[in-house]
């Protein structure tokens, strides 16, 4: 009977109470708890996007320093005499670490280890990811990411001496938020923007699924040194991919959609462009004004050459109510991503607030209309998918600290409403193809080929500056990528944004 009791007690201690007793024993050995690590933020391929790095940190236990070692540390200005009153001293300065590394080999009171720094200098998608608990993905999923039980701990023996090589990592950091971002495409987009773009944004979508493969904004900032960017007049912390801008001629796709859907025109209808048009008391000039206008031109070519006169005439025919209705059908004026708190909805005005003379501006994407690069990408995504709304998204899966998958985008249907018919979507794609074959967007083609399709935009700001836009897809026959480009005060869409599309496509298709 006694043997049975002893066996049961041994079982209870070894099996039932083992976790409790283990942690209790460790608590007697451990003194300070080192930096806690949040859950990770990864690419679609499981690559950590934060460039998390480790830096050397020293831990000094003054009670285990010899007098000559103490004097050496004071004379070397590594620590002050008052510091010896503390049970432990943490040193992070690299120059001090270099000296302490030599002493560590002979002193039991010094331990050097590698501490985790969440953000490195080569972090990708900084605007999208944001800052821990404050912005971007880091803010939206803070409840998940801050669940961390991953702490590094340094152990001390029963009499307070640090045990070398005893850093313990409680769990592996392969949990957190996995994005749809492709790290190779993201990196290449950022490299191109660093070379070509002072201010602006680029969004790259998977043309079939709506997954965001890349999203970048410039000027950039470094999360690791964010305090250096807070007062920058160029506002580098803004995610310009989610900020509203006057769209210019990319908005003509809305007017064209409304006209085709309401059967108010057809691609073969012939218009006359004398180079200008009068609406109310306003006179609007076409890009062809200096050449006397486009003359006789079909609706197909009016979109290809981005003729203002034809689209203002078409806008008057469609009417303000229908233009606004189709803008909203495309999702303009509404947030696209639930994942990013900073996203702005833009502005699609109430038709009641528009007067007759406003039709001239609205029809060519000027005036009270403001939309975001991600909204423009979504509009093009809808057209590419035969008029079927596909909602762009950026989160692929979420794994909690216990390794459980709590979200998986494979089980989400991102299709929305039908915006326009397949027949009319095909007609619009025909005009987008024409724009790149012989119209305003010929510079969007890759060298030696003509497989791009898209629309340029040059939005006038009233101070002799313009935003440059391009939104398009590639290749035209079997689309793989939808790309939206905004160059803030970047000049001409045809001259500046369209060539950037060509460069982006050339680079990312090499993968």
TrEMBL record:
Residues 200-505 form the Penicillin-binding protein transpeptidase domain. SUPFAM superfamilies: beta-lactamase/transpeptidase-like, Penicillin binding protein dimerisation domain. Signal peptide: none annotated. InterPro entries: Beta-lactam/transpept, Beta-lactam/transpept-like, PBP_dimer_sf, PCN-bd_Tpept. GO terms for biological process: cell wall organization. It is an enzyme of class 2 (transferase). Pfam families: Transpeptidase. One of its GO terms (cellular component) is plasma membrane. Keywords: Glycosyltransferase, Transferase. Its EC number is 2.4.1.129. One of its GO terms (molecular function) is glycosyltransferase activity. This is Penicillin-binding protein PbpB.
């Amino acid at each position: 009977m006694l043997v049975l009791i002893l066996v049961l007690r041994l079982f209870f201690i070894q099996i039932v109470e083992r976790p409790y007793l283990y942690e209790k024993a460790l608590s007697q050995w451990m003194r300070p708890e080192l930096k806690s690590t949040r859950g990770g933020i990864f690419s679609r391929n499981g690559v950590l996007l934060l460039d998390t790095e480790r830096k050397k940190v020293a831990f000094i236990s003054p009670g285990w320093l010899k007098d000559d070692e103490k004097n050496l540390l004071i004379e070397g200005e590594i620590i002050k005499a008052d510091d010896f009153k503390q049970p432990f001293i943490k040193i992070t300065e690299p120059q001090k670490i270099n000296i302490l590394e030599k002493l560590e080999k002979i002193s039991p009171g010094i331990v050097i280890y590698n501490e985790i720094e969440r953000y490195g200098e080569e972090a990708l998608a900084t605007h999208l990811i944001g800052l821990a608990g404050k912005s971007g993905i880091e803010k939206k999923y803070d409840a998940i990411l801050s669940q961390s039980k991953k702490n590094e701990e340094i152990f001390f023996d029963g009499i307070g001496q640090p045990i070398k090589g005893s850093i313990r990592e409680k769990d592996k950091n392969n949990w957190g938020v996995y994005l749809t971002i492709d790290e190779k495409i993201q990196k290449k987009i950022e490299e191109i923007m660093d070379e070509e773009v002072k201010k602006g944004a680029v969004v790259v979508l998977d043309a079939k699924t709506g997954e965001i493969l890349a999203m970048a904004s410039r000027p950039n900032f470094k999360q690791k040194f964010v305090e250096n960017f807070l007062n920058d007049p160029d506002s580098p912390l803004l995610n310009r991919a989610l900020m509203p801008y006057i769209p210019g001629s990319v908005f003509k796709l809305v007017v064209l959609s409304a006209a085709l859907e309401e059967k108010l025109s057809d691609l073969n209808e012939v218009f006359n462009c004398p180079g200008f048009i009068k609406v109310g008391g306003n006179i609007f000039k076409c890009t062809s004004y200096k050449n006397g206008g486009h003359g006789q031109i079909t609706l197909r070519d009016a979109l290809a050459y981005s003729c203002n006169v034809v689209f203002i005439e078409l806008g008057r025919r469609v009417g303000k109510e229908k233009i606004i209705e189709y803008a909203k059908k495309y999702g303009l004026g509404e947030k696209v991503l639930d994942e990013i708190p900073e996203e702005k909805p833009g502005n699609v005005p109430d038709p009641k607030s528009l007067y007759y003379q406003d039709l001239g501006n609205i029809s060519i994407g000027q005036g009270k209309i403001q939309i975001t690069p991600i909204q423009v990408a979504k509009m093009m995504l809808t057209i590419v998918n035969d008029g079927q709304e596909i909602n762009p998204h950026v989160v692929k899966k979420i794994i909690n600290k216990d390794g459980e998958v709590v979200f998986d985008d494979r089980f989400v249907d991102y299709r929305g409403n039908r915006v326009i018919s397949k027949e009319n979507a095909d007609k619009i794609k025909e005009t987008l193809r024409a724009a790149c074959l012989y119209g305003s967007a010929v510079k969007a083609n890759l060298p030696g080929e003509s497989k791009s399709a898209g629309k340029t935009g040059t939005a006038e700001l009233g101070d002799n500056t313009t935003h440059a836009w391009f939104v398009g897809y590639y290749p035209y026959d079997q689309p793989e990528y939808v790309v939206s480009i905004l160059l803030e005060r970047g000049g001409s869409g045809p001259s500046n944004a369209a060539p950037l599309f060509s460069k982006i496509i050339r680079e990312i298709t090499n993968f």
